[in-house]
Amino acid sequence: MVHTQQLLDQLQEQTERYLQKAVGEWQMLSPEHLSFRPAPDAWSAAQCLEHLNIYGRHYLPAIEKAIQQGKASGKKPAQRFHAGWLGAYFTQLMQPRQGGVLKSKMKAPKNAVPAAQPDPQRMLAEFIDQQEKMLELLRDAANVDLNALRVPISLSPWIRLKLGDTFGFVIAHIERHVLQADRALRGYTSPNAGKERPASAPVLQPLR
């Protein structure tokens, strides 16, 4: 059990970090850097972003729909949020351990597997748009009951999580793959690295 506004503030802070990383760091990188795969069976940063974007295309509209339904119901927001057992399980499964260590390697569902070479700049632009939308939804969620509203998960429309759990699970999933993208980026070596710079031209002395 947690205070609702405290939960929303924490999730907003996390989302702001992902957005700032994308805008302040990743936008400065070359397409080659974003597309670098540290191992044949490892994803590039661009693939991590496409994977997250695929999930965002499902969850962001579903969350927005739930919030709209909550506003229409006229029900007041609950001061405290009680996580459901399934939502808490999904969130804990995704959350990295202390120090950013991932708990286990997971196989992505077939419909969420990224392309071998996604367009890195388009994936990054969409990721930025999705984080901005997430911040908007988190602010809007302060006006509804996070316990009462339900969101269908991407794997099955019959399984629904509380709105508060959906936020927690989706943002933990983003954190997982932001860390994975950062690891891929750290393994990249520029083709120009280590090349000697051309010697500077000699300074001509004035004639006497």
Query: Which runs of at least 5 residues are low in confidence (pLDDT < 50)?
Result: 196-208
Number of helices: 6
**Oligomer classification:** single chain
Number of strands: 4
Strand order of the largest sheet: 1-2
Gyration radius, rounded: 22 Å
Overall average residue pLDDT: 89
SSE string: EHHHEHHEEH
Helical percent range?
Answer: 40-55%
End-to-end Cα distance: 86 Å
Kindly name the structural category.
mainly alpha
Shape: elongated
Strand content: under 5%
Please tell me about this protein's structure.
- It is a single chain.
- By secondary structure, this protein is mainly alpha-helical.
- 52% of the residues lie in helices and 5% in strands.
- The protein has 6 helices and 4 strands.
- The chain has helices spanning 4-24, 31-34, 45-73, 85-94, 120-140, 163-186, and strands spanning 2-3, 80-81, 150-152, 160-162.
- The strands form 2 sheets. A two-stranded antiparallel sheet has the order 1-2.
- A hairpin with a 7-residue loop joins strand 3 (150-152) and strand 4.
- Helix 3 packs antiparallel against helix 6 and helix 4 runs parallel beside helix 6.
- 32% of the residues are buried.
- Residues 196-208 have low confidence and may be disordered.
